[in-house]
Structures are given as structure tokens and as C-alpha cells.
Amino acid sequence: MKKTVFGLILFLMFQSMSALAQSDVISEVFEAVAQDYVNQISNKEIALKGLKTLSETDGLILIEDDEQVLYLKKNGKTIKQFEMPEEKAALNVWADFCKKVIAQAAEQSTKIEVHDFEMPDRFANAVLNGLDGHSRYFSVFSEDGQEQKLKIKRPFASRVIDNILLMRIVTFKKDISEQVKTAVFECSQCKGIILDLRGNRGGFLNEAIKIADLFLDEGIITYTLSDENGAPQYYLAGKGDMTASKPMVILVDGLTASAAEVLAGALFEQNRAVLIGTKTYGKGSVQDVKKMDKDRAMAVTSTYFYTPSGLKIDKIGLSPQICTSESENCDGEDRFSKEEDIDRAVLYLKTGL
Q1: Which numeric CATH code is attached to 156-282+317-351?
Q2: What H or E segment, with its residue span, contains residue 112?
Q3: Please, what is the Cα angle at 236 between 231 and 239, to 5 degrees?
């Protein structure tokens, strides 16, 4: 008898923990998107994005809606309808609404029931990963939680080619700007500079800002907006170009992204460098990372970057002045190992052609 009671207690505790986990995850998704996401999105849209995971889990389950009612269908037949909360309802009301729909779907689908404990994570994954292409949800239950991070052994390298300093930055790690400064100082007699940002997916923004400052004599490096109607935050260069305006080329490709695009855009638009390569990736946004517990985290896009002239980098990218691609529109491609791009940069610095 005692064993039976103990077993029942454990069962009830597990059920309570499961319900709590579901409530926490879904509620935190609504809160994070409402408070941090850079674009306006309705609570209804958040709910519908998340509830699409029901159909992805079981193809026989379908969610449809009109302005006020959500229909839960199975095999094309409506099995339950729910009155949706008002748009201005509290976020926890919307979270509870989504939990009720998920619970009802689990009663109608063995596939969803089997994955019942994972459904909040699947909901979060569908919402965050479906926002803008850069926001992400990381969990032991989501695919992104299993991704292996790219290991970069040498984030910075430099060499001299025909009295021209070539610096390759693979990622913006801490103190990369100091390594750039040292390389430029040690090659003070060099006649030109090539900054190779091919394959650079970003990193610490402040390092990219510091590098831009090394080569600019005042002016805007970039600015950010967290709200299209809000005040911009400017990042400015101080006085003094440490190279005394030596001619400069920046190599870019389809994998040049984020902070690397900020750096390239600043030096290009301030007429400090010529871009050679292909169109860049177009990731001009910042993600705020929120740790939820030891197994979960959210990265929500909170800010967009703009070039000095006001070009929004995100989903647009930068187009080089000299294209090394054979595609008609100089579409972005991986040119990380293409030595001919370096040769083209050397030719330009020597002849201006």
C-alpha cells in the first residue's frame, strides 16, 4: 500500500513538473518576443506560429482560424473550437490559451501525446526560428540544441605580399583589434592593406568597431535601431587614421556577415576602402540571449545595424565595387579559399584597376 501511495505521489509530482515546464517555456516565449523583439508582432501571430508545431508533429492535426475563433481539426473535421483571447489580453492569458489547445490536441493524437513533454520546446522552436531567420531557440529537445559549433583555430593571420599587408580575420574574438594594430605597426613601410573578411560570420561587435576606428579619421561607423521610431545609437570613430590613409581593399564573400558587414560597410561608405569579392550574407542584426534554465535559451533579434548612409544591412547585404564571381548579379558565394581574389586585390592596389 505504501509503495502504491509513493508511486502515485511521484506520478503527480512528475505531472506537475511537466505542466510547470510547459507553462514556463510558453509564457517566457510570449514575454521575450513582446519585450525584446525588434519588429512588432501580435500575440495572435505568436500563438499561431507556435501551434503550427501540432501539424508538424502529426500531419492529421490541423489548426485554422478566423478573427476570433481557432479551430482544431483532425482528418479535416473540426473536433474542438476555441475562442481566442483579445489581442490586448495579458501575456499569461495567451500562454494559457496555447496550453489548452496543445492539451486538447494531445487527447486526439497519440503522436502528440507521446511527445507531450517536448511540445512546449517545439512550440518555442516554431515561434523563435520562424521570426526573422536570426532569432533562435536552443534546447536539448530542439535541433539547434544539437548543433556543433564551428571551431576556429586561427582567428587572425597576416602576411606581406609585394609590400602589401594582407590580414585575414576569420572571427572577431577578444583583442583581435590589438592584433590588427600590431600587424599594421610592424608593416609601417607597406604601401597598401588588404583586409580579408571572407568567411567571417561576425563575433564581438566592439572589436569590429575598434578596427574600423583604426582606419577612419572621425565619422560614423554604424548606428543601431531597436525601434524604427526610436532614437538611433551611433558608433563614431575618433580622430586619426593610423595608416595615414594608405590605400585599402576589403575582401568579402557570401559568408561575410554581422559584425564583419558592419566593418566592411563603414570603411566602404566612408570612402576608406574598396570592396572586392561577392555580395555579403546580409545579417545586420543583434540577438539578445536569455538563459531560461540549464537546458534552454532564447536568442531574440532586438536591434538592426545600419551603415553610415542609412542602409539596413539585414537581408540585403553589401555589394562589392569589384566582383570576382561569374554570376550575373554577383550573388554571394563561399570564396574563402580563392587565391585569385587576393591576386585581384593586389592588382587593384598596385594599378588602381
Answers
A1: 3.90.226.10
A2: helix 110-114
A3: 155
266 contact partners, CB below 8 Å, separation of at least 6: 212, 216, 220, 221, 222, 237, 272, 307, 308
Quick: pLDDT tens for 239-271. Answer: 999 999 999 999 999 999 999 999 999 999 999
Burial class (CB in 10 A: 0-12, 13-18, 19+), 23: middle
DSSP H or E run through 157: strand 156-161
CA angle 282, 211, 169 (to 5 degrees): 65
C-alpha cell at 316: 540585403
Instruction: Say how far apart CA 146 and CA 138 lie, in whole Å.
Output: 8
Q: What does the pLDDT look like over 316-333, one tens digit per residue?
A: 999 999 999 988 899 999
* Helix locations, 37-148, DSSP H: 43-57, 91-108, 110-114, 119-129
Q: Where are the domains of the chain?
A: 18-134, 156-282+317-351
Query: Using an 8 Å Cβ cutoff, are 179 and 170 in contact?
Result: no
DSSP state letter for 146: G
Cα 99 to Cα 41: distance, rounded to the nearest angstrom:
20
pTM for this predicted structure: 0.78
Instruction: For residue 309, give every residue at least 6 positions away whose Cβ sits within 8 Å of its Cβ, in sequence order, or none.
Output: 269
Q: What is the pLDDT of residues 275-309, one digit of tens each?
A: 999 999 999 998 888 888 777 899 999 999 999 99
pLDDT for res 140? 61
Cα dihedral 64→69→72→77 (10° resolution): -80
Average pLDDT over residues 99-114: 95
Helix (H, G, I), strand (E, B) or coil at 83: strand
Pull the grid cell for residue 239. 580622430
CA nearest to 124, candidates 300, 304, 302, 314: 300
Quote the cell numbers at residue 230: 526610436
How far apart, in whole angstroms, are the C-alpha atoms of residue 56 and residue 156?
43
Cβ neighbours of residue 352 under 8 Å, at least 6 residues apart?
none
Q: Which residues pair with 159 in a beta bridge?
A: 166
**Amino acid identity of 59?**
G
Q: How confident is the model at residue 153 (pLDDT cuts 50, 70, 90)?
A: low
Contact in structure between 98 and 44 (CB atoms under 8 Å) = no
